[in-house]
Amino acid sequence: MTSRAMETARLVAEVAAGTRAEEIPRRICAAVCEGLGVDGATLSLLTDTPARQLLAASDDDALVLEEIQFTVLEGPCLSAAYSGETVAVDDLRHEVTPWPLFGASVREKLPRVVSVYALPLFFGDYVLGSVDLLARRAHALDAHDLEQAEEVAEAVSAALMSTRDMLLSGGRPPAWEPEEIVRSHWFDTARAVGALASRQGLAPEDALARMRAEAFGTGRSLADITAGILRDPPHDPQPWTSAG
């Protein structure tokens, strides 16, 4: 492990050792940004299923990046989780990405974000999530930098082990900070899917697909669609249409 990767891994380990469990993901994002010299980072778990868990986003740009991927159901984070391999997008301004909806949405909503890197998080042989890194410059990480980032991702996986049971234990919303953001991107979305499925006689995956389509078609975030469904009365046949 190189000195830069070692120092960043040390920062990540210190976060895990000296921080309350619910604050660990946010502090890890800050440590990764500082250590690897990127402009933003996110942590997500369960990224290869509809029940995706956003743990933390370092800033507003990072949060929008995750909203886009969750809404259009494609992008580097999802690809890293599916494949178990690092995914690099070195220049969003000039590269044609393999994800047309993602590429178009990022260029429209995040013009300052130029490069994105997604690294899988392994728990043993199983990919349980990914860490996304974003930068406002092209080719922010070269091949050597990515090797270091992969070593840091191993440290991130180890740091998150203490929080795994909290996440996977079921029914209650996770206590990750900032709570309002996590609720709107995980627990409330799952509740809205169930409510819409029940109201309209849909399978949960079809309800989620309908919510994503509405979000993409209107330019609103999936969190906004979720809030509208949970706010409106159950007899409304299209609960999101009246949401502001």
Task: Give structural notes.
This protein has 244 residues and is an alpha+beta fold. 53% of the residues lie in helices and 14% in strands. It has ten helices and five strands; from the N terminus they run H-H-E-E-H-H-E-H-E-E-H-H-H-H-H. It has a five-stranded antiparallel β-sheet, sandwiched between helices. The longest helix is centred in the last third of the chain and has 22 residues. The N and C termini lie far apart (50 Å). The C terminus is likely disordered.
State the main characteristics.
10 helices; 244 residues; alpha+beta; single chain; disordered C terminus; five-stranded antiparallel beta sheet
Parts with pLDDT < 50 across at least 5 consecutive residues = 239-244
Order of helices and strands: HHEEHHEHEEHHHHH
What's the arrangement of strands in the largest beta sheet?
2-1-5-4-3
Radius of gyration: 18 Å
Helix/strand class? alpha+beta
If helices are DSSP runs of H or I spanning 4 or more residues, what is the number of helices? 10
Sheet bearing the most strands, described? 5 strands, antiparallel
Instruction: Report how far apart the termini are.
Output: 50 Å
Q: Specify the helix fraction band.
A: 40-55%
Outline, from the CA principal axes? Answer: globular
Give the number of DSSP strands. Answer: 5
> Beta-strand level of the residues, as a percent range?
5-15%
Please state the average pLDDT score.
Answer: 82
Please state the oligomeric state of the protein chains shown: single chain
